[in-house]
Design brief:
Structural class: mainly beta
Strand order of the largest sheet: 1-30-29-28
CATH class: Mainly Beta
Distance between the termini: 46 Å
Helix content: under 10%
CATH architecture: 7 Propeller
Number of strands: 30
CATH topology: Methylamine Dehydrogenase, Chain H
CATH superfamily: YVTN repeat-like/Quinoprotein amine dehydrogenase
């Protein structure tokens, strides 16, 4: 595999002319989350910080203002928002999750594990926080109580998690994909082996809860339906590859309006796709560093993504002198994310 930077064409961190978030983290970004209620963006980072910016759009321009930040004791790996937009949750290598009221209250530790917390999600319908850890457990938390409401054993370390109530899917080491129906979360609904041959990197539940996307380190995405009668609709496709070079798919995000989706990868590219017509809607220019995480805002008008070293080539390939961290905001054009009729269809049922 060649080195990441190959020539002048890949020396630009912002070839898509996105808007740059001011005062980004000092180290790589591990997660990005937009408030479900307003344009507030949260980033977690390997520099142990959780930061929040206000994003203000005026026509075709965007301005960002740093609002606040909190610290963990070790690198922070994941973040999520409460559905009402008042509270941020974050978890990481200090084995704890913190609850941060944005009204100005002090952050509180609300969850603990025996190993780093890799994934976190707020389940509004249950009024519970769920955390997934490398200690091979999922834990559900009522944030008013010190102990978890329920501990679910996993077959391996948690690598990825997606929730769209009542559907929850957990990806672990050894390519396990465990599906839960959150109406009865203490029992597995279904366990399958990933349709992809290599390590699971990210997951995204379909907006209609009928299935999920899975991305892996091999530059491939799987589209999987849960209903056995829909198995003929399952497929996998290649993305984030350049000749013989294969890059990890690091992030999967469904558009909140059109239900198409974005992929972002270690090749420094993000693309928009329509799973129903099996088409790529838009391919964006490759940035000069990997994209480890991305997210849409609540109305799908802004796509946030980070451009920074993603540690996939180890510490020995990390050069602090050149590996600046960026967070960019891309203004979405409807043509980039609106689905298209499937090629070859005639309109007949």
């Amino acid at each position: 595999m060649s080195t990441f930077l190959t020539g002048t064409s890949l020396s630009n961190p912002n070839p898509n002319k996105s808007y740059e978030v001011v005062q980004p983290p000092n180290d790589s970004v591990s997660s990005l989350s937009f408030s479900p209620k307003a344009n507030f963006l949260v980033a977690t980072s390997w520099d142990n910080q959780v930061r929040c910016w206000e994003v203000v759009r005026s026509g075709t321009s965007i301005a960002t203002t740093p609002k606040a930040s909190i610290s963990h004791e070790q690198p922070v790996l994941c973040s999520t928002w409460k559905d009402d937009g008042t509270t941020v949750f974050s978890g990481g290598c200090d084995k704890q999750a913190k609850m941060w009221p944005l009204s100005g209250g002090q952050p509180m530790t609300v969850a603990m594990h025996d190993a780093p917390i890799k994934e976190i999600s707020w389940i509004d319908d249950m009024n519970l926080l769920v955390t997934g850890s490398w200690d091979k457990t999922l834990r559900y938390w009522d944030t008013r109580q010190a102990n978890p409401v329920h501990i679910q054993q996993l077959p391996e370390r948690c690598y990825a998690l997606t929730v769209n109530h009542p559907l929850m899917v957990v990806g672990t080491a050894d390519r396990n994909l465990i599906v839960y129906n959150l109406i009865s979360p203490q029992t597995e609904f279904k366990r399958i082996s990933s349709p992809l041959k290599y390590q699971t990197r990210c997951l995204a539940a379909f907006p209609d809860q009928t299935g999920f996307l899975v991305g892996s380190i091999e530059g491939r995405v799987g589209v999987h339906h849960l209903d056995d009668s829909q198995q003929s609709k399952n497929f996998t496709f290649k993305c984030h590859r350049e000749g013989s070079d294969i890059y990890s798919v690091n992030s999967l995000n469904f558009h909140p309006v059109h239900h198409t989706f974005a992929t972002a990868g270690s090749d420094g590219a993000f693309n928009f796709w329509d799973k129903d017509s099996k088409q790529r809607l838009k391919a964006m220019s490759r940035c000069s560093q990997p994209i480890p995480c991305s997210t849409f805002n609540q109305d799908g008008s802004i796509f946030a993504y980070s451009v920074c070293y993603d540690w996939s080539k180890g510490a020995e390939n990390h050069n602090p002198a050149t590996a600046k961290t960026y967070i960019f905001l891309h203004l979405i054009q409807e043509s980039e994310v609106k689905g298209k009729p499937r090629i070859g269809t005639t309109g007949r049922k």
